[in-house]
Design goal:
Layout lengths: L2 H13 L1 E7 L5 E6 L2 H4 L5 H12 L7 E5 L3 H14 L5 E5 L13
Parallel strand pairs: 3-4
Antiparallel strand pairs: 1-2
Helix pairs in contact: 1-3, 3-4
């Protein structure tokens, strides 16, 4: 396990995992809740996310862009872009909205 991955796991465990009584979006009850936004938007942790994700996608032959469903994927994609640039790599990013916009160009991606 890389040092960055170990540090990321430590941050997630200490800053993003909450114990108690929670109602999830599905209505299901849970005794814990993981809020990764707490770490993905943290200036100390974002670079670690970028490093770990770059290591995970390195074996993939061709990656042109990174992204996913907004809001959760936005800071992760940004972390990958920044760490990729630091390694001399070039990626584009994208975000996917749950619904197409009702204004502007009306795009969903």
């Amino acid at each position: 396990m890389t040092d960055a991955r170990h540090q990321l796991i430590e941050y997630i465990g200490s800053d993003a995992v909450f114990h108690g009584d929670f109602t999830l979006t599905s209505g299901t009850k849970a005794s814990y809740y993981v809020d990764l936004r707490r770490v993905s938007l943290d200036h100390r942790v974002a670079p670690l996310i970028g490093q770990v994700m770059l290591d995970l996608i390195a074996p993939i032959e061709r990656v042109d862009a990174v992204g996913g469903l907004t809001m959760g994927a936005d800071p992760i994609a940004a972390a990958i872009l920044h760490q990729g640039a630091a390694r001399g790599l070039s990626y584009d990013a994208f975000v996917v909205r749950k619904e197409p916009k009702d204004h502007g160009r009306g795009r969903q991606v």
